[in-house]
Design a protein that fits this description.
Blueprint (H helix, E strand, L loop, with lengths): L2 H17 L5 H19 L8 E4 L2 E4 H8 L5 H4 L2 E6 L9 E6 L11 H13 L5 H8 L5 H9 L19 H16 L4
Antiparallel strand pairs: 1-2, 3-4
Helix pairs in contact: 2-5, 2-6
Length: 191
Amino acid sequence: MGQITEKKIVNAIKYFVRNTNNIGLTKLFKLLYFLDLMYFKKHGLKVTLLDYFTYDFGPVPAELYKQISSENLPDFITKEIKFTKEPDDDELKNPRYKIILKNPKIDMSCFTPYERKILEEVSYIYKDVDANLITEISHFKNQPWDLTKKNKGMYKLIDFELAIDEESTMDIEEIREYITLQKELKINGRI
């Protein structure tokens, strides 16, 4: 993963923590998902390059979740953010995490103007929504999480192409070209 992508992930997390209420891991994952999904619908790319999977509580960036739960986060995250497991009766089934910003300063310069606009929109829309409601929203019928769950099952990669609809500004072939390019750039560490 390139330095630009790392900055976008860290600063998106920091932005959501600073600009929304009731934020824990479940809500954070959905906010990141909606950021990537909304941007993808318009531009054929994801902001964070995270891959999301069909978990019981909605779309989850599985790699990030595994890193948090195993306390094995990459340095670019641990320098800026701390995830602390909160004691809970139901900890084994669904542990809760508190998100602490070690450095509250957000570097918005890593985002393009369009990415920044979507980041702000997602924060505004879901500012006061709790984890239960945002999870329900992510489960809406005929949306990518729901369609992936129906067609492939649980714990499967969510295909963002399923989000393409009449509101999308690009056709499916253009988006597939962008996806291929983005994957190549990610593999080469250029983004």
